[in-house]
Amino acid sequence: MKVFGIVLALVLTISTYLRLLSLTNLDIYAISVRRSYYPPPISRIFQNKLTTGFYQARTQVFSLLSFDYVFRTLGYE
Amino acid sequence: MGLILILAMISRGVDFGKTPAGITDDESSHGYNAYSLLLTGRDEYGKTWPILNRSFGTYSSSLYTYMTILPVKLFGLNPVSIRLPSLVSGLIFVVLVIAALGPAAGFVVAISPVFIFYSRAAFETNLALTLLFLGIVLAVRAASRPKMLPLSFLFLSLSAYAYQVERVLSVILISLIAVYYWKTRKKIVILSLLLALLIQIPIMFISFTPGANSRISTLAGRGNYPFLFLTYFSPSNLFSRPDPAPRKSFPQVSVFYWWMIIPFIMGIKKFISSKSYKSLFGKSLVVSVIVSPAIAAATPDYFSTWRALPMFLTLAWIISMGLGKSKMVYFFMLLISSFEIYSNLVLLKHEGSTAWGYQYQALANFVRSHSDETIVIDNARSGPIYIWLALYNHYPPQKLQSMVDTEWLKDYYNHVEFDLNKTIDNVQIRPIFWKSDALTDQILISDSLGISASQADEHFLTLVTIIPDINAQPALYVYQTHPALKISATQRDSI
Which domain holds residue A10? Predict the structure, then answer.
């Protein structure tokens, strides 16, 4: 099971790096909007390109662990 | 135990009543009906101590409303009072989990987003879960102290009054526990069953009325059942995607944090190898993990976490089994989750404010300060606005009750119809009809879709004020009509 943890961490790291290179202007705008919700000194810790890239990578990686694929393959939507 | 409880109190209690910002229509219904029951002994429709609450044309469980009466009496009618029963039951739940399943499980429950979220707002499902689990804990204790069995059945039966899913789940669990103890403690099992039956009789009778079944009959059997059932076990839904309903989770956060999938997978192995499922605890929690999604999947909603809440306790237990004993693991989990919880609370407050009805408090203030003018509030895209106005302005319940005739009340549990349009004193809550409304001297209130800038120009409306959301963005626009200008312009155009 430790292997699973290491593989997951590796996949997420690589995927985050790839996502970081392809953030859109809309993503950058969303980061700036969300920063305004936090107290100024710490807003950069929670809302930055890295956290956004990681969120997108996580969503993509976990979507592979969804059962939705099985049902789509069987013809359900 | 003390440290975990403090952690649970901080994660659930920080900025309590203000995050989520605003209050939903369902929460308002609990609060206002508790206020109405406190003052008059009747709900907003005039029904004396109802078994099920008529909540906007559906019938919801009443126990949460009754539990809100005391906080409303002590602290007044406000979001803190309305949400307090959920917070208290959430904290009791953590204590029960520590006592019954160990500190590791208590720790997982204390930091898991799903349990934090449902303890921060008025959700009947959270109260029901605590009652249900208390019933299970007492049933297990009954092995050494048989007198606990009637108490166990009492709390299991009470959970049926707290939320719809528990109406089915509690009966299944009572049956399971009765069978478990039948051979060794027949007398006390019979006594406990009689007690459970006595408590459940009123809700069983009411459950056969069309009104009580309205929610079930409108939702059941409309989706692809096997697909919807399996969504509750999808790792993506459990560890990554948030609940699709915007008012049912933290933004961008799922039931558990993504990294909890690692101890979860390790925990499954231990759960099976240790044969934990063979104990009464294990059996009860395994039943919960199957029955609650089975009921939730009968509705067309994709992955409704509030309906499947009991199953997440079992999953939290499994996650705790995979944590191991290293103190460093707990330290890192605490560190990461503290960051996540803080960030989740900030995002929930700011991104969920409109969905949580933040703007209606300012609307209620405006209505209160303009009691001598006719006000039309557009409800074409909103919920039952009257309940927010009644809640925030502490509208006398007797006045709302007087709008319902006594014949209607005789058939209280059969009214599935509900009209969102209401007239209360000087306030009309209905869609705007431009042909007549622009020609009447009154105030019109709507969002930007209800009254666009071009419509305001066309109908000679002047902007009185803008009601903002928590981020100072316009949520509602308040306009004054000018019938004389509109009439003269219409006449000029016709010439």
Answer: 2-73
